[in-house]
Design brief:
The protein has helices spanning 2-9, 129-134, 191-194, 227-251, 257-284; strands spanning 25-29, 35-38, 53-55, 91-94, 96-98, 101-108, 112-118, 125-127, 145-149, 154-167, 170-179, 187-189, 197-202, 207-212. By secondary structure, it is α+β, with helices and mostly antiparallel strands. Among the domains are: 98-192, Cathepsin D, subunit A, domain 1; 222-290. A hairpin with a 2-residue loop joins strand 5 (96-98) and strand 6 (101-108). The chain starts with a helix and ends in an 8-residue tail after the last helix.
């Protein structure tokens, strides 16, 4: 089922869950902050192998809370203990298995509840045409379209903005979303939502934990976000604009004015999004070399 879905939309499903295993396990974190597990070091991408952490089999592991308790440091009389840096509490979300896929409940625009496939490798969140109609989202001549490749064709697909998506208690506003109907599923939760969080997937306990990428603003975290986050955001919009401009050039002269209008709408949309990102970056004091 996973292969069929990804072949339809050519979005690589990179859901790598903790699998039940009684041998050695390797834990690693990718550049997006997503936690992965593998039962063999050869299955860890080469660039992450030096930092991969070997986990002992469950029978050898101690029953401890997270984070694991450590011996309390001794303090000198009259001196206070240094503050301990802890990660902000995450949002735990139940996962539900269907065939080879994992789904979670999402709330769209504050009211519409659906179960979406979780895909940490998809650039965009997807909703079906039926959900778009239910939410009163119009698809017309002013709607931006972007190119999506299927196993047999390349098509222009509507791009809309959802007012909000909530997963558990984690909520993101103004989420870029593609309207694309998939067999048997109402939608897919992709990185237009998930990239606002560090995502930890745990199939053993059937849950996903979302840790906000936004922390306390500081000189090295303008606006509360890291260098990698800002660079990733600018690359995303610039890459889409480059692709759309190439697509526009290929359509010009073909006499296909309707498709050309849709592409022009998409270019204007992404130019607007990039302009807004520039405004936010300038306000936060993001260095210029993080915006390329």
């Amino acid at each position: 089922m996973k292969t069929r879905v990804t072949n339809l939309i050519l979005l690589i499903v990179l859901i790598l869950f903790v699998t039940p295993c009684y041998g050695e396990m390797y834990k690693w974190v990718d550049e997006k902050g997503t936690l992965h597990f593998a039962d063999d070091l050869s299955k860890v991408p080469e660039k992450y192998r030096p930092d991969a952490e070997l986990r002992k089999p469950p029978k050898e592991m101690k029953e401890v809370s997270v984070p694991e308790a450590q011996e309390k440091p001794k303090t000198v009389p009259g001196m206070t203990s240094p503050p301990v840096k802890t990660e902000a509490a995450g949002y735990e979300v139940p996962l539900f298995r269907r065939h080879e896929l994992w789904l979670t409940e999402v709330v769209l625009n504050g009211s519409a509840k659906h179960y979406f496939i979780v895909d940490t490798g998809a650039s965009f969140t997807l909703i079906s045409r039926q959900i778009a109609n239910e939410l009163g989202i119009p698809i017309n001549d002013t709607t931006p379209f972007i190119r999506v490749a299927s196993v047999s064709d390349v098509m222009l697909t509507p791009l809309v903005t959802l007012r909000s998506i909530r997963v558990g208690k984690a909520e993101v506003e103004n989420v870029d979303t593609l309207v694309y109907s998939m067999p048997s599923y109402q939608g897919l939760l992709g990185n237009s939502f998930l990239n606002k969080f560090k995502v930890v997937l745990d199939s053993i306990n059937g849950k996903m934990t979302l840790y906000s990428m936004q922390g306390t603003p500081s000189p090295d975290r303008p606006g509360g976000f890291s260098r990698d986050y800002w660079i990733g955001q600018f690359k995303f919009y610039n890459r889409n604009l480059e692709e759309l401009r190439r697509l526009k050039a290929s359509y010009e002269g073909r006499g296909s004015q309707a498709e050309l209008n849709r592409i022009n709408n998409a270019i204007r949309y992404f130019e607007g999004q990039l302009s807004e990102l520039e405004r936010k970056a300038s306000f936060a004091g993001v260095p210029r070399n993080w915006r390329e």
